[in-house]
């Protein structure tokens, strides 16, 4: 089929080696017409070796081999396919390193190598792939510094380097990449502080620096990232408080600052004015003050996790206004008072209140939570019995009620598991 331009066989059960004729000029005319090859989600195990003396087709534009079973080193001879705009080898078991010849991909717009077994430093030559818009190297074993040469990729939109072994600091010149929408550097060994230059990236929607060794205070200039939707700084070494300027992130949907241990103080009132916020996790820190009633104004909130802090006072009854709330986690604090019956208005809820100083009975109204999945009330000062009607919570999988009167264990229902751990 000398005139074939598109080969689309994705999502089948094809196996064996990917034939070399796809990549090389094997026709009598000495050229290949194939421009788009989509073989993702199959069971290919390898790539046929290139024929002696053959050159990769310069007509090939898209090569998609994601989610197969490809093994062996990264095929350096791919770099001869200089017309490629998209190369997707993600989700295989490819090993080896990126060759310096990567700079031959002058037309490349997307390089997706995530979820493989590649290692070594990323060559600085990648900075010469001037058309690159997406660089995905996530979940490999790349190490060394994040190359400063990435700061030359002026068209770069999405940078995925998470789940590797990168060390040293975040290159400040990433702040020159005005088109950046995604920076994902989670799960590395990056240290230092967040460069001020990153705060100039007005198009940034996702900043994920979780699971590194970054320290210092959260910069007040974080409020300049007006388009930010996801901010994940969890499991680092940040200290100080949450800057009030975070209240300027009106598009923010997910905020995760958990696992710092040195973030402290009261929560700024500006945090309660983020109209798009759906997920907030501040767990495992040293925040204090009353359990904030201000979260009640965040109508779109799905997850509120304030566990393992030093919050005190009572659980605001107004949390019952959060009709979309799915997870309320306030465990390991110093909360007192009774469990507000108003929480029963949150129809699909996981409730985690373990290790506080709550008292009084378990509200009978909680039995109205037909979609209740988990109710963890252990290690409190609650009294009385479990409301019998809680057996109507047909989605309930886990019920923890340790240290409450033994009388509560009279219920026998396959719907939930009761534990006194």
From TrEMBL:
Alphabetical keyword list: Leucine-rich repeat, Membrane, Repeat, Transmembrane, Transmembrane helix
Gene3D superfamilies on file: Ribonuclease Inhibitor
Domain of life of the native organism: Eukaryota
GO cellular component: a single term: membrane
Residue ranges of coiled coil: none
Organism: Musa troglodytarum
One Pfam family cited in the UniProt record for this chain: LRR_8
Main location: membrane
Record InterPro entries: Leu-rich_rpt, Leu-rich_rpt_typical-subtyp, LRR_dom_sf, LRRC69/RLP
Places the protein is found: Membrane
Keyword S-adenosyl-L-methionine: no
Name this protein carries in UniProt: STYKc
Secreted keyword on record: no
Its membrane topology: Single-pass membrane protein
